[in-house]
Amino acid sequence: MEEGVQRRVQVDHDERRAQVEHEQAGDARAATDTSRNTIVAKGNKPKKSPKKNSGDALVGVMHRFVDIKEKEATKEDGNEFSITRCMAELRTLQEITPDEKLMALKLFKIADNREMFVNLVADKDGTALLWIRRHI
């Protein structure tokens, strides 16, 4: 009976050694397989490695943000109701005083006011000057 126990211990020992050797071989493959971004785990099942460059996503977001801001800036330059256009139209009003002119500039900070002013000036009936005087 003692001989049977020794044989079983030897078999268990041999099986464990084979398992350790297999795992070590798997670790060696994992080290050489990194060029394919996979890790070979127990059972030789490839797994995707975690992303290493998490900053790439942030860089992409920042590029999109810059693109949006550039488009907005370009859009404002081509805006038919720009502050520059309002100031040019303001100079065409002959009866406006320098104080009224300065107060009107505050009104032009709001896009809706600029649009209304430009359209009123186009009417050429004096309503643009009345509109400014009522809002300052």
UniProtKB/TrEMBL annotation:
Residues covered by region (Disordered): 1-56
Biased composition (Basic and acidic residues): 1-26
Domain of life, source organism: Eukaryota
Protein name as annotated: Uncharacterized protein
Native organism: Brachypodium distachyon (Purple false brome)
Lineage, top ranks: Eukaryota, Viridiplantae, Streptophyta, Embryophyta, Tracheophyta
